[in-house]
Amino acid sequence: MTNKKNKLSLVEQDILSNIQSGSGITDAFAPLMKRVMEATLQGELDNHLEKEVVQKNYRNGTSSKTVKSSMGEFELETPRDRNSNFSPEIIKKRQTVMTDDLDKKILNLYANGMSYSDIRDNLEDIYQVPISNGTISKITDRLLPELEEWRNRPLASVYSILFLDAIHFKVRENGHVVSKAVYSLLGIDSDGKKDILGLYINESEGANFWAGVLASLKERGVEDILIACIDGLTGFSEAINSLFPKTEIQLCIIHQIRNSMRYVASGEQKEFTKDLKEIYRASSKDLAETNLLKLEEKWGKKYPIVINSWNNNWDNLSTFFKYDKHIRKIIYTTNAVEGLHRMIRKYTKSKGSFTSENALLKLIYCSYIKILKKWTMPVSNWALIVSQLEIHFPKRLKLALHS
Asked: pLDDT tens digits, the chain, 403 residues: what are they?
């Protein structure tokens, strides 16, 4: 690194010093960008001339043009060849606006889950210019205002189904590594399109927290939610009953089963699971309740905690029985949002822990944006589903369908 830096002018050394200290990013990057581009252009011409030995092609000075980038304007000296057949790749002939700036490269690498050190090594290999982790952090911090704008964007007036679940990450805080829960709100609108409505971080759940989340949805234009599918989120039922009193709640059956198995002896879990299937796979709510009574008669004395949990939560566990199979398949579990979290893990898997909550937010937001670009089609069998929803929720869905 020392030899490379000694080749720079005093001004350029000062620029690099500012960048490496994390200050003067915008002002410093235009001259640095100029040097990187010109060095790359010279390298491209060297390679070109090596292939032009037979034609006796040589250098022929430079031409100057003003180039605009997100870091500012600068005069770029583009090398020329005598035969005029050199076509640079890094910035094309007659191109005056850079669409692939260094900062955009950094943001793209970061969005794909690459660590700061890997980004730094990657760019130093390409451009032969030292870039500090502090510089990269400053550049990725530009995502924060964009994230805040995204979190406050207007939403649809009606969502047919809302899924909520948490994904946990390790974050450094006050010298310690703590676990943070990231809550994703996944909504399906009246056209069957999936959208991520919000991103929230909180160390503990509760009615006040969820009241704030739901109030923010109202402020962003949400007037009605037909069905909310959730894990057993503490305080959520109370909050949604207050702010969206017509919303039906479906507790995730899969989460309920997982929680139940924690209190069942391993040698009896297979048999217990088989008996549970007779409940949630029943053809009707009446049959499911009959099978729940059978479960209680068989296992109630041995596992009262599990049976009491099913009985106490039955109203919200059994909501899906009133719908046909297409709606049941979607709402009996929070698999939709869990699938979202599996996709997020692809972008965060290289992170053992995050250096700060903002670092976590930036990468989650990047993964959200990439995922949303893939969600272009309605959910499967939406025509059948929306017809059934129209029957169960008369006049409530029309607002979204015909507005």
From this structure: 334 434 444 444 544 554 445 444 445 566 767 777 787 788 888 888 888 777 788 888 999 988 876 566 788 899 998 888 888 877 788 877 665 456 667 777 777 778 788 887 877 776 555 667 777 777 788 788 888 999 999 999 999 999 998 889 999 988 899 988 888 899 999 999 999 998 888 766 777 888 889 999 999 999 999 999 998 788 888 888 899 999 999 999 999 999 999 999 999 999 999 999 999 999 999 999 999 999 999 999 999 999 999 999 999 999 999 999 999 999 999 989 889 999 999 888 878 888 889 889 988 998 898 899 899 999 999 999 999 999 999 888 854 444 4
Picking from 377, 23, 347, the residue whose alpha carbon sits closest to that of residue 194 is 377
- Is 400 in contact with 157 (CB distance < 8 Å)? yes
3-state secondary structure of 201: strand
Torsion of CA 196, 201, 206, 209, to 10 degrees: -70
**8 A C-beta contact, residue 307 and residue 334:** no
3-state secondary structure of 13: helix
Q: What angle do CA 166, 169, 170 make, to 5 degrees?
A: 150
| Residue 26, C-beta contacts closer than 8 angstroms, at least 6 positions apart | 71, 72
Distance between CA 198 and CA 204 in Å, rounded? 17
**What are the structural domain ranges in the chain?**
2-140, 154-402
Report how far apart the first and last C-alpha atoms of the chain are (Å, whole number). 62
Strands 158-173 and 176-189, by their bridges, are: antiparallel
C-alpha–C-alpha distance, residues 310 and 316, integer Å:
10
36 touches 127 (CB < 8 A) = yes
The secondary structure element, H or E, covering residue 240 is: helix 236-243
Bridge partners of 318? Answer: none
Print the SS3 string covering 350-363.
Answer: CCCCECCHHHHHHH
Which residues, in sequence order, are CB contacts of 15 under 8 Å at separation 6+?
A: 28, 31, 32
Query: Going by C-beta distance under 8 Å and a sequence separation of 6 or more, which residues neighbour residue 203?
Result: 178, 180, 181
The encoded tokens of residue 339 equal 């699938």
Neighbours of 267 (CB within 10 A): 7
Token duo for residue 125: 């290999």
Structural tokens at position 112: 């794909």
